[in-house]
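Hey, can you fold this one?
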Amino acid sequence: MLADPHSFFSADATSMNDSMDSVKQELEAFKSIRSAFMKWTLYLLPWFILATIVFIIFNYPVNSGTVMYITGLLTASMSLFTFRILMQKIPRTFKTIWDRKVVVECESVSSDTEQDSIGPDEFENRKDRDRLEMGYLEFIQNLENLMNSPFQFLSGILFSLFVLTWEYSSKAEFIIAFIIGIVAWKMIITAIYVWKMGEDFCLEPQLGHADKCGGLSPLGDLCLWNALIVTIPAVYLGSWIIIGIITEPQTQYFLQSEEYSALFSKLLFVPVFFAMVAFFLPLWSTHKLMLRWKEKKQSQLDHLEQYIDTLECKILEEAHSMDKNECETIFRERELMDHVYKQNKMIPVWPFNIKIIFKLLLSQSIPFFGIISQALNFIRKLP
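Sure. Predicted structure:
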């Protein structure tokens, strides 16, 4: 019995904590794809493509042309599986960011509230939090509505019309192009709303958070999966360029690669460029917020460093006149302050850590190698 595809395009209810919080309830009910037809199509299509690959392997002779076609189908299937993961991660990402309480009331709002305050601080703080919650709730609702906007079908139609420019095309290619257009729409909306996080809200990263980027790594991870969708075609193009380098001349795989290397070299720049844009550009607004946050925290660290220096000087100048207990107290305090300083001196300014950036660079290794190899070939051919 087939699993309900709805579970692949909505938040995992079992992973959400029971809460009356309206934001969490909204994210539990979040649907990146509302249309039942589209859910089933995007759920079954990658499996259908894999089944087609198996059929070709067992019914057609395996030669270089067949292998190129099969790997192209495999690329499409892997991109769709990656897209499914992206759709699952959207509500989980925004829930995690909310639960970590890195989305805070802006200082300007807080100061206005304090000036007009006529009630207890606790009441005013709750009112600010309610206002923030309503803003975040509206943000999530707008994201879901825009992802399911009728414009997604217009995007699909535009991609389908692009197939008309091909010399040869089939009905299946029109359908695939239509689905790619819808996928592209949802990827773009995801990127826009990650960017809007840093524009519409004030973020307060957490020093010393385990993810090494202030608790904001879910945003970086979401952009990584968005970039991986277009990276997979780049891996396909780069791999066939590399095949022409590592295979013996005049073999069928060498000739197949040689035939398409000029075209693939030009096309390769497109997914590599969009992968970099899909990863870095949405995070830029959060990066700017983190730079301002770093300035504030750096000032605190500078004061801490001065205090450590004061303790050092006191130990040095008064060690002969202090008793043992006083000396040990000051020394322990100095060690504690030094530990705090060393733990927090590397203030993150991007919402991703080494693990995320390593995955991005690893995914781009084959495309980059393909680009470099073509550049070297071009240089060799120069007079």
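The first helix runs from residue 22 to 28. Let me know if you want another pass with a different chain boundary.
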